[in-house]
Amino acid sequence: MEKALLEKYNSLIDYFKGLGSVAVAFSSGVDSTFLLYAAVEALGDKAIAITASSCSFPKRELNEAKDYCKALGVRHYIVESEELEIEGFAKNPPNRCYLCKKELFEKMFELARSLNIAYVAEGSNLDDNGDYRPGLLAVAELGAKSPLREIGFTKQEIRELSKHFDLPTADKQSFACLASRFPYGETISKEKLAMVDKAEQLLLDEGFNQFRVRIHGDNVARIEILPQDFPRMLDEEFRIRIYDTFKTYGFAYVSLDLKGYRTGSMNETLK
């Protein structure tokens, strides 16, 4: 482990100590797990975790969040955040993430205040500055802290430190809420969210580490996997089995994206 990276981590510890108390928006992902670990090391029981439960957040992620908080010994609170009830969200406009984050963080701030917690922190990192992230505008407007971006942590550095501290998410695949699988302007529904969730759970169970299943219209799946995983997906027996299983989930057509996995592919159509 490089000395400079450990010094950067110590800066994060000092940052949290300066806050006095903090509620970490915790999704059980790579970034928020690392952030929560550091917050607890710095502040002990003056750090808490808040997780949002909704139809766009897979149950497996919620269960992982519960298990990790229990293992870490941190107080864990769950807030219900039903995005489909937010005005305009289901229509999936380009600022969909802004609408969701604003409602979610308002609830987190309310809970934090009721528990005498001074600040709310979220886990975006330096790499998130390079993509269209309207949710970060809501975070900034509400005054949430973004320690990893402020100090300058990259995703790779977070993974390296997570491995150093033996965190369970060091090699975990990157994840974004299931609503991000829909093209802007296409209606989001519980039924289609469930289809995507089942399809991605299947690929996860099959051992794929980094992927997305995007949904187009009511019944078209576009699978994004890493290019090195193409040969396995194109094996005839495996390919047919994946296709047949997707059909049982409600997909009529199943395609493989030739460019492969990348974050924010739905933003490629934005001007």
> Rough shape?
globular
Oligomer: single chain
**Which residue ranges are poorly predicted, with pLDDT under 50 across at least 5 consecutive positions?**
none
Question: Taking strands numbered 1, 2, ... along the chain, how are they ordered across the largest sheet?
Answer: 3-2-1-4
Helix content percent band: 40-55%
Order of helices and strands: HEHEHEHEHHHHEEHHE
What is the terminal-to-terminal distance?
A: 41 Å
Structural class: alpha/beta
| Strand residue percentage | 5-15%
Task: State Rg.
Answer: 19 Å
Indicate the mean pLDDT. 94
Largest sheet: 4 strands, parallel
Number of helices: 10
Number of strands: 7
Task: Write a concise synopsis of the structure shown.
This protein is α/β, with parallel strands linked by helices. Helix content is 45%, strand content 13%. The strands form two sheets. It has a four-stranded parallel beta sheet, sandwiched between helices. A three-stranded mixed beta sheet has the order 5-6-7, with helices on one face.
Structure, described:
It is a single chain. By secondary structure, the chain is α/β, with parallel strands linked by helices. The protein has helices at 3-19, 30-43, 59-72, 96-114, 134-142, 147-151, 155-164, 190-205, 230-234, 236-249; strands at residues 22-25, 47-53, 75-80, 119-121, 211-216, 220-225, 253-256. Strands 3-2-1-4 form a 4-stranded parallel sheet, sandwiched between helices. Helix 8 (190-205) packs antiparallel against helix 10 (236-249). 34% of the residues are buried.
